[in-house]
Amino acid sequence: MLNNTLPEWGALDTHARTMRYVHMNDLVGEGRVKAMSLSLPGLYADFSRQRMNDDTMGLLLSLARACDVEGWRDRMFSGASINTTENRAVLHTALRRPAKDSVMVDGENVVPFIHDVLNRMKAITDAVHSGTWTGYTGKRITTIINIGIGGSDLGPQMVAEALRPFHVDGITVKFVSNVDGTHLHNALHGCDPATTLFLIASKTFTTQETMKNAQSARAWLLAKLKKDDAIAKHFIALSTNEKAVTAFGIHPDNMLPFRDWVGGRFSLWSSIGLSIALAVGFDHFRALLDGANAMDRHFQTAPLHQNLPVLMGLIGVWNRNFMNCSGLAVLPYDQNLLHLPAFLQQVDMESNGKRVSRDGETLPYATAPIVFGEPGTNGQHAFYQMLHQGTDIVPCEFIGSRESLAPYADHHHILLANMIAQAQALMTGRSERESNNNPHQTFPGNRPSVTLLFDRMDAFHLGQLIALYEHKVFVQGILWGINSFDQYGVELGKILANSVLDSGKNPESQGKIDPAGAILLSLTA
Ligand code: F6P
């Protein structure tokens, strides 16, 4: 059964027909802000700037109950195989559980395995930082290059950048993802093979881009160090696929494993996060896990009407399906969160960019929004014009921190003033009267936003923030009745790329290329 056939969905549809004509300016007030905000330890969330009235949230909460959000949540945390198309559990949350906890998968408590890997990550991190892990020639490691793509790149890269104020002196961490040789070439520029450690991050260890970059990195290293046994000192694999890791030439002792119940886009908490630990030290990595675990506990235990991931998921569905908004702008007022929009593109769009239900029925309603964003204030001078006066209404999510980790306190005041002002301007707009009847200077307002204000963006709060978004996206997947945990949509292009690559040698592959592709191929030959 599709979720839009539920009476609760129908009631929202009817209610939305009225709400589309309501302006938020007619709803505002202190009481509304109190009712539509939430304080968690270290985090204040304002969602009063939404095109909703008292009835809207009640109807949305009824939809959440009708879709059994709580039941699905509990099944996810308990290790049930909720990734139905791949028949797998979805247990990235287990990666942030304390050692005393127990999470059962197929009769095994997986927490001891998780902590064994965490201990190995800590040992490697400490050894690299103390200089007891040296390169093949005995020199200290100074450069870490993480080679991975998608979830094996976006999460660790985003977090490593977000925690820049905590970077360990003497260590530079770089990320290579694109199969474009420029990416690897630029990363290797200025590196000394004797002091460079490569992390080959790939859940499957078969991803074309990562394998190609890893092979070229190995060739670069061996061209300089000459000896095959240098690999052991300069390559670590982060993967689920021991066979492929061994075949590549990395000994299992240099492999940090994780399990198939960790989805790629949720894997930064696993051994895939080694680059983070190497960048900032293991204590900060532990704090990141603790922050995420705190958000997990909130998601698991708070009543729906005070449950932040649930509320944000409901607001997202309200805007997407009932207010017909197709975009979502993620706007961190924090330069260190530079890569957050790209990371959330994968979390949201790879999870929920689906057109059929869990049972394979075509969906008659919209799913994942188009996620984009830039750190404030840069975005203000790029695309905010469209947010304020364009013909589409794009819900915005503002993210800031009370305290800055940078030394220039007076900059932070200006930064936060801009964030607060933008949310207000989007909502209130500027009337024709206020703009002297100049249509070019009139702002319709009524443009919704959520504001998340953290105490500071350290590892703990960053963990909270990421887990909040993971669970928000999960809630939306349940409300849409889809499987948020597969990603078959990336397959077709990959298969065709292999045919294009193979077409010079193989007539069968050649036959799979369309006329436009054939001409483009001939022009690149
Ligand atoms: O983009 C598809 C995808 O499978 C992602 O889900 C994943 O994060 C990425 O490729 C990389 O996969 P792997 O870690 O197996 O190399």
From TrEMBL:
EC numbers for this chain: 5.3.1.9
Protein name per Swiss-Prot or TrEMBL: Glucose-6-phosphate isomerase
Report the subcellular localization. Cytoplasm
User: PROSITE patterns recorded for this chain?
Assistant: P_GLUCOSE_ISOMERASE_1, P_GLUCOSE_ISOMERASE_2, P_GLUCOSE_ISOMERASE_3
Q: Could you tell me which PANTHER family the record lists for this protein?
A: GLUCOSE-6-PHOSPHATE ISOMERASE
Record's SUPFAM superfamilies?
SIS domain
GO MF term set: carbohydrate derivative binding; glucose-6-phosphate isomerase activity; monosaccharide binding
State the function annotated in the UniProt record. Catalyzes the reversible isomerization of glucose-6-phosphate to fructose-6-phosphate.
* Species of origin: Micavibrio aeruginosavorus (strain ARL-13)
Q: Matching InterPro entries, A to Z?
A: G6P_Isomerase (IPR001672), G6P_Isomerase_C (IPR023096), Phosphoglucose_isomerase_CS (IPR018189), SIS_dom_sf (IPR046348), SIS_PGI_1 (IPR035476), SIS_PGI_2 (IPR035482)
Taxonomic classification:
Bacteria, Pseudomonadati, Bdellovibrionota, Bdellovibrionia, Bdellovibrionales
Print the keywords alphabetically.
Cytoplasm, Gluconeogenesis, Glycolysis, Isomerase
A GO cellular component annotation in the UniProt record: cytosol
The principal localisation class reads: cytoplasm
Q: Which HAMAP family match?
A: G6P_isomerase
